[in-house]
Sequence to fold (146 residues):
Amino acid sequence: MNRLLCILIAFSGLFGATQASAQTVDRTSIDAARTAWLRTFAAKDTSILRNTTTDNVVAVFTGEHGRTLTGRKAVAEYYGDIFAHVKFDLAMTFESSTLDIHENWALDKGVWGPVGNTLSGQYLILWRRGDDLIWRVAYWTAGDKV
Fold:
């Protein structure tokens, strides 16, 4: 009995270490995916957006001109129009304060703002890991408070 208990304890420790290692890999992957997604705005390039979001992505814009867009095509068209007309730098910084990973989903919350300025807004991103194991934005919103 003691031997079986020792084996179970050793196995659970190994399993816990494997889970922690997987979480670290996921966090690193999500951080890289967030950086790639933010390149969309800095480069004003919707092709990056198409590669970093799910097919059925939902984007919720808050404020007086709030709207909700559903689908990669709708979001890319919306930003394509903005990128064609905006002449100033759109580079942004997102700093994650919470990243909860649950299998193929992750909830990412933090603060954001233009590069070089105070990070004063809040964001919420729901990440989805695809069958290809790549993390992509499935939902996002950003504003003064989310």
